[in-house]
């Protein structure tokens, strides 16, 4: 099924911060000879093993120490030269295996490569064998557990950090995140407020992603984004100079940077956009740093681009230079601060205009991102002060959709879905980390007031399921009235929506792809609109599909509306009929008009750049989104 956008380090909503930083737990020895280090580093690009042998020979001869290599590793890491840093830390560990920092730092770098995850675990465990409460090793092992959905283990590791450092922000966020993933709430919302105050006081850089599901303000989101961006490991010397103006006669070159160009929720939304770009005006480049899963979606995405460039094996500097060499006019980041992002590439300024779009619902807090693509609902101009980017408002919704999105021909029975044969079906297929205690209590009140009704939820993990059963029983609701939907292929998941009567949205992190899935399948969505981008997405989608009456602005109103709809079959049936007709006519599902609107924004960005003007807010009028007369439906 469609997934919420994923992203300590790497799990849905678990990106807390960069991995725990390299450890400076060793002194720099006075005996180090720069020439020995420099010769090894010069050799490294051609002969990694030879460089390692040179350093170890220098240690044997007394010209270097393991600590010198460790310090050189720190310097290389801070400069973004991870390959050199790893070799230096591993050589230092081989010479002096009793220093836990060498193993922990090597593990940190190995952690960035999914193919070397087991080696990272082994290196981090070696550090813990030497120092059981080594904070960096505990944090990064916790990140690995989060990524592997081993949430109870992650909790235990983060709590070990907190026993040593009670105010460690990364560990506190990790604890909150793991708790949310398994719906083990306790005092999690109070802790989120305390963390927000701690961030304001300490300026600790953490990834803003986890804050999207926290009850914090847009100002908190902006602060976290700015702090995180400033902590990126980018050398000013590697930042590219401004490019020359583009030749006026050639098409505008658009580059899309993403790791999700395969069987992934982002591709499901954006593939028809890629296909419909006007090739007389634009040339399309993909810069992919994700997997080739061999899927039909991957083949469709690749075919949609004029040039499909794999940059996953490249360093940030190499990828940025390739983008600059291709003469990209507008580079569109589809990731933001989500799983697999390569923000360092953007920080090097490979393109004269850089845009945040679709993948991350919030500001990136970066001086190297010029625009954020939104609409009048998710990014009202009155909130421009909460964005470091200039706001672009598209007509309709900011979210593209694929009009070829297939629903399986065979609809499973209610029994096959685990649903009772009769009774009203409330549903929410959002990831469980988006469910808050207050919202769940509200849902239980709805079940209590609608006899025979059930709540149909996405089964993210077994621990969350069991905890939600417990929470239901604590609220006086039979746990059997909670039905859990296992993960399945998108077309089959869409088909089972036929049994959903009303989709209940989450707050402060709304349904995104899951909301458009429900609306596409004819299931009305009740939402409560909040302040932040992430809390306004469902309202944007409902506006663009012609059902603004389903938007509320308080939880009491949300509850009252959901209850009224559950008790009014005729009104609900009319909404479902509206949605069925909307698939052919509503702006939300009009990929042709969406593409023309986005292209109008791109043309204005490019014109501003060509004129030498600074970026400015852009509002695309409805008329600019009209399909071309010769364009196929």
Description:
The strands form two sheets. The chain has an eight-stranded parallel sheet with strand order 3-2-1-4-5-6-7-14, covered by helices on one side. Strands 10-9-8-11-12-13 form a six-stranded parallel sheet, sandwiched between helices. It starts with 33 loop residues before the first helix and ends in a 14-residue tail after the last strand. It is 44% helix and 9% strand. It folds into three domains: 34-214, Serine Threonine Protein Phosphatase 5, Tetratricopeptide repeat, CATH 1.25.40; 236-394, 3-Layer(aba) Sandwich (Rossmann fold); 415-589, Glycogen Phosphorylase B (Rossmann fold, 3-Layer(aba) Sandwich), CATH 3.40.50. The protein is α/β, with parallel strands linked by helices and 633 residues long. Strand 4, helix 15 and strand 5 form a beta-alpha-beta unit. It has 23 helices and 14 strands.
CATH topology of the largest domain: Serine Threonine Protein Phosphatase 5, Tetratricopeptide repeat
Uncertain segments: 1-19, 27-32
CATH level-four homologous superfamily name of the largest domain: Tetratricopeptide repeat domain
How would the global form be characterised?
A: globular
CATH architecture of the largest domain: Alpha Horseshoe
Instruction: Kindly provide the name of the CATH class of the largest domain.
Output: Mainly Alpha
Strand order across the largest sheet: 3-2-1-4-5-6-7-14
> How many E strands?
14
**Helix share bin:** 40-55%
The quaternary state of the protein chains shown equals: single chain
- What count of helical segments does DSSP give? 23
Instruction: Supply Rg.
Output: 26 Å
Q: Please indicate the percent range of residues in DSSP E strands (runs of 2 or more).
A: 5-15%
Tally of distinct domains: 3
User: What is the residue-averaged pLDDT?
Assistant: 92
Distance separating the two termini: 27 Å
Biggest sheet, in brief?
8 strands, parallel
